[in-house]
Design brief:
heterotrimer; A alpha+beta (about 45); B mainly alpha (about 110); C alpha/beta (about 500); A: about 45 residues; alpha+beta; two-stranded parallel ribbon; 2 strands; about 25% helix; C: alpha/beta; Peroxisomal Thiolase, Chain A, domain 1; six-stranded mixed sheet; 13 strands
Chain lengths: ~45, ~110, ~500
């Protein structure tokens, strides 16, 4: 059983790491439902 | 972690049940990844946000960790994230994330 | 003809009391955790003006040290003392808080900034001695009011306090009783931005060696918004600052794009000059009080001083080609489009490799890249990593992918084509533009032939779109042709007259 399939996924991306939208594309490719995606900025 | 984001995490955990929620992170460093992971498992370590003292114990991964990466469509990961593996210290991120999950993850 | 970069100004203001009273990390903490350890610990981590002066990255910002000098200093830098601690540098200056509070009052045209009269008397001579100040600005400084009245305004009239060394020395009044966009808080933020932009404008005009009257247009690219409740971002910071700076022949407008704002504005300025619409345009931006102490919690936790205690500003003078100064090449423009997406490789591809490929250039044809030049001394302890270094690694990774460099040369590429970050984390201030002053000198000296300036912006923070943004442009060595070297108007008239005569002669000959 996978970690993501059928789960509700919350994404906290980082502007200077991986942005939320890029992670969202990955999570959806694994069959997860993305309920929230955000990108934080420390600069 | 941003206070508004903490609020949303808390609300979603209540709405869907913490066992059904997975948090994915994209932080730039091991330490920052660990702090964000700690926030959604053991509570906000900076005592500022809505998750202060709230032990949700959510399942949490950094997007570059091998076990989560294995679940993604390879082409999508390659296009969206792969280059950042050359930029980030993935080993440090994995070790920080593993340590937090071992201590605080409930699911 | 391509436009050129005639000069630039870079200024910093040391604002320790604004860290405590106006930085959003601190104002938020005061609401959510007023009795917490952070607010108790914070005051003991504030730097003195002398410490701010002898901080390596600050001396690089105003031009007394170079990015190469900084790269040779072992990190971290907060515990090292720079061997130069001059408040003035070839690009601008580091102003102490007390002088800046007076300058804020001089920049306020609506009688909103009130200063304690004893404070004014004690500090006016210092501001008067500042080489960028002139009589017209100094004449704007009033005598001040009673300290008791300042305290009453803060306690009873919702005024935003102005503090120095922990003492209330003035305030910014609200400009309207109901309109939140004219509240004391917003007016304070905007007047700080305006006053630091004025400093940058004055420094840039001086450094470029032009007269104030030559300036025809000013573009402000900070991240604040000015307006009232019926037009929240109406503007125009550019013209407001130009007025105080005495740029009487200029109009202007504001360009916004989060941290990418300065690069957008530079491209717009170059296009305005190259098209002939205006002969001299200045791109300017003041700094941001909200970001003061932004990563303070991490700095305090790790026993560091509060390094985000500087308000920044910059201005770049763009003029018609003089045959000498470095040119802005609008034929090599990078742009992150709506369709680019937010994958880091797509972002860097759109800003770096795509425009170079269109121009038939390799990544190695650019001698220096200036992406986001945040000081790593500030960002590393806060978990954001070394931002310029991460950008260079991404550029290098794409260069490897394109076959421009070998994988083994990845580290060498980041050193040779990169720079060590020195700019304060003031959002738009570190974004690409901090290197323009040095790039101009390096290009004039023949040390490099091409530099790429890259601005990136986090549009999603405004909750209007999830998109990222960015634009890039190239500055290159002057080709040597001048605007005047072409055919002059007189010559054209002469040629036309000659052709007409010849034509008339032919007609006459035919008639005969």
């Amino acid at each position: 059983m996978g970690i993501l399939a059928g789960k509700k996924v919350i994404i906290i991306g980082d502007r200077d790491g991986i942005p939320g939208e890029a992670i969202k594309a990955c999570a959806e490719s694994a069959g997860a439902e993305v309920v929230f995606s955000s990108t934080e900025c420390f600069v | 972690m941003d206070l508004e984001n903490q609020k949303r995490v808390k609300e979603f955990a209540e709405q869907y049940g913490p066992e059904n929620v997975v948090v994915l992170l994209g932080a730039a460093e091991g330490e920052a990844s660990g702090l964000a992971a700690e926030t959604v498992t053991n509570g906000d370590p900076t005592y500022a946000g809505p998750l202060t003292g709230v032990q949700l114990g959510l399942k949490v991964y950094h997007v570059c960790e091998p076990e989560i990466k294995a679940e993604f469509d390879e082409a999508v990961y390659d296009e969206q994230v792969s280059m950042m593996e050359m930029v980030l210290d993935v080993d440090d991120i994995v070790s920080e994330m593993t340590s937090i999950r071992e201590q605080y993850c409930k699911y | 003809m391509k436009s050129v970069i005639k000069g630039a100004g870079y200024i910093l203001v040391h604002t320790p009391d604004m860290v405590l009273h106006n930085g959003t990390t601190q104002t938020t903490e005061r609401i959510v955790n007023p009795d917490g350890e952070y607010l108790k610990e914070l005051p003991s981590h504030i730097r003195s003006f002398d410490q701010a002066l002898s901080y390596w990255p600050n001396q690089v910002y105003i031009g007394n040290k170079t990015p190469d000098d900084l790269a040779a200093v072992e990190q971290p830098w907060y515990d090292k003392t720079c061997d130069v601690n001059d408040r003035y540098g070839k690009f601008g200056q580091i102003m102490p808080q007390e002088e800046f509070l007076l300058l804020m009052q001089a920049c306020d045209v609506f009688d909103l900034v009130k200063l304690d009269k004893d404070f004014v008397a004690a500090n006016k001579p210092a501001l008067a001695a500042n080489p960028i100040m002139d009589e017209s600005i100094l004449a704007r400084i009033g005598e001040g009011i009673d300290g008791a009245e300042v305290a009453r305004l803060v306690n009873e009239e919702h005024s935003e306090g102005l503090y120095h060394n922990g003492t209330l020395v003035g305030c910014v009044n609200r400009a309207h009783d109901i309109d939140v966009n004219l509240s004391a808080h917003v007016m304070h933020e905007n007047i700080v931005s305006k006053a630091s932009s004025v400093m940058a404008l004055l420094s840039a005009v001086q450094n470029a060696g032009i007269s104030k009257d030559e300036v025809e247009y000013v573009i402000d690219c900070c991240e604040e918004a000015c307006g009232d409740m019926n037009q929240r971002g109406g503007g125009n910071f550019a013209k407001a600052a130009a007025e105080i700076a005495g740029l009487n022949n200029a109009t202007g407008s504001d360009a916004r794009g989060f941290c990418a704002g300065p690069s957008h504005a530079m491209i717009e300025a170059a296009a305005l000059v190259e098209s002939g619409a205006y002969k001299t345009v200045i791109v300017t931006a003041g700094g941001c009080t909200a970001k003061l102490g932004m990563n303070g919690k991490d700095h305090v936790k790790k026993g560091l001083p509060i390094l985000e205690d500087m308000v920044g500003g910059f201005a770049v003078v763009v003029t018609q080609n003089d045959g000498v100064n470095p040119e802005i090449n609008l034929e090599i423009l990078g742009r992150h489009t709506v369709g680019t997406g937010s994958a880091p490789q797509a972002v860097i591809g759109s800003l770096v490799t795509d425009p170079l490929e269109r121009a038939g250039l390799k990544v190695t044809d650019i001698d220096k890249f200036s992406p986001e030049m945040q000081n790593p001394d500030i960002t590393k302890p806060a978990g954001a990593g070394d931002v310029p270094q991460a950008n260079y690694k991404m550029i290098a990774a794409l260069a490897v992918k394109r076959g421009d460099i070998a994988k083994a040369d990845l580290a060498k590429f980041t050193t040779e084509h990169g720079l060590t970050g020195w700019a304060p984390t003031q959002g738009h201030i570190p974004s690409g533009v901090p290197y323009i002053g040095f790039a101009r000198e390096d290009l004039l000296a023949g040390k490099i032939s091409r530099a790429m300036i890259i601005g990136k912006g986090s549009l999603f923070l405004g909750r209007m779109t999830n998109l990222f943004d960015g634009v890039s442009f190239v500055i290159q060595k002057n080709s040597g042709e001048t605007q005047a070297a072409g055919v002059s108007e007189e010559e054209v008239k002469g040629m036309i007259a000659k052709a007409m005569k010849e034509f008339a002669a032919t007609l006459l000959a035919q008639a005969e």
